[in-house]
Structures are given as C-alpha cells and as structure tokens.
Write a structure and sequence with these properties.
Helix content: 25-40%
Largest sheet: 6 strands, mixed
Structural class: alpha/beta
Strand order of the largest sheet: 6-7-8-3-9-10
Radius of gyration: 17 Å
Distance between the termini: 21 Å
CATH class of one domain: Alpha Beta
Strand content: 25-35%
Oligomer: single chain
CATH architecture of one domain: 3-Layer(aba) Sandwich
C-alpha cells in the first residue's frame, strides 16, 4: 500500500497538503483543474520535489529519504519524451544504459515489454515514424521495463485522439491488472478515471478529498 499522511510542500504562495491511501491492483484518480496541485502530488511521490512535513510510505517503509531513482516508482507523462531520432529499442535502452551498451538479456527484456504493449517487432523502427499512440506505447514499455510496483500517470491520455485514447486506456488497464500495480492517475477528465475503474479524489485548494 502507498500511504501519504499530511504530506506538505509550499510552492510560491501555494501550500499543498496531501493524504491518500492507494492499494495494489487499484487506480486512485486525482481529479482537479489546472494549477490545483495534481502534478505537485506526483512529483512529491516520485521524489522530484521535497516534502516539508508528513509521511510517505510504500508497504510501511518511508520513501522520503530515498532519491527519485531509488524509489519503487515510475511515471508515464502526458508527453512521451522520446528521442525521435533514435529507434524504439534505443529509446527504451537508454533507461538501462545511457551509453546503449545492451546485453542479450537487455534485448530480450525490451522485446518482452514491447510485446506486452502490442509493439512486437517494433525494436528497430525510428521513433519519428510512429503514430502518437505508438509513441505513448513505447513510453509505457519504458516504464514497464523498470518493473516498479507503483505507476504514476500524469494525464498520459490527454494528447491522444479519441480512438487512440480508448485503446491506450484499455491497454493500461490490462497492464495494471496483469502486473498488480498500485496506480495514481492525475487527470482533469472524469471519463479517464471511470474507464480505469478508479477510486476518485477531488483536489481543491491544495487538499485531497475522497469522493462518495
């Protein structure tokens, strides 16, 4: 279980305080307008921002003193953040070795996650030849390769067209179930939360409130 208890930070004149419990095989959707603190919450969990007070634990172990790359967390962003001049394999491989010196075992793992996201055989395709949905699938594969139990979703479907968005949500839902992930989704789109069968929380005035 991922638990936040009065986790606080201040950005400029805005003070945020978050309390949340999210279990494995569950999606917790944080619904709020732009500027309400949705990305701030994810950045605190991921370790990109430091908390001023409160607790943040995974399976009862504190995460607050761990660097971002040491936390059991990975993030799928709205923008896929791929290097378009590189191949699919190279984009994913950067997460294993920045020099792209990959072993045969690394190649096998990359092939496995690409198959998992429906991109079997795409290893050598340049990223700039892929559709928007395919690029986002590569970004999801990159997350899965890290094999972390907590997946943060930072509005990853909002830049996709409607048909691609539904396909991507269905894929993400299947991956969550297959891997028994603990997921925190931030979105302004209530339909995304509904399609992922999420437990919803409203974020207003920098604080979370569970919805009925």
């Amino acid at each position: 279980m991922l638990e936040l208890e009065n986790l606080t930070t201040t950005l400029g004149e805005n003070r945020f305080r978050f309390s949340l419990r999210a279990d494995t095989d569950q999606v917790s959707a944080i619904l709020g307008k732009s500027g309400s603190g949705k990305s701030t919450l994810l950045n605190l969990i991921a370790g990109f921002l430091n908390a001023e007070s409160g607790t943040l634990t995974w399976q009862s172990q504190s995460l607050l003193k761990l660097a971002a790359n040491a936390r059991p967390v990975t993030t799928l962003f709205q923008q896929h953040n791929l290097f378009l001049h590189l191949t699919v394999l190279q984009n994913i491989g950067l997460g294993i070795n920045p020099s792209l010196k990959l072993t045969s075992k690394d190649h096998k793992h990359i092939e496995q996650v690409l198959k998992e996201v429906g991109l079997d055989g795409f290893e050598h395709k340049p990223a700039d030849t892929l559709s928007g949905g395919e690029q986002q699938r590569v970004a999801l594969a990159r997350c899965l390769l890290r094999n972390q139990p907590v997946l943060l979703l930072d509005e990853p479907f909002s830049a996709l067209d409607e048909a691609t968005r539904y396909d991507m949500i269905a894929l993400t839902s299947r991956v969550i179930a297959d891997r028994n992930l603990c997921v925190v989704l931030v979105t302004h789109n209530r339909d995304d939360a509904q399609l992922l069968n999420a437990t919803n929380y409203s974020l207003t005035s920098g604080e979370l409130a569970a919805e009925a």
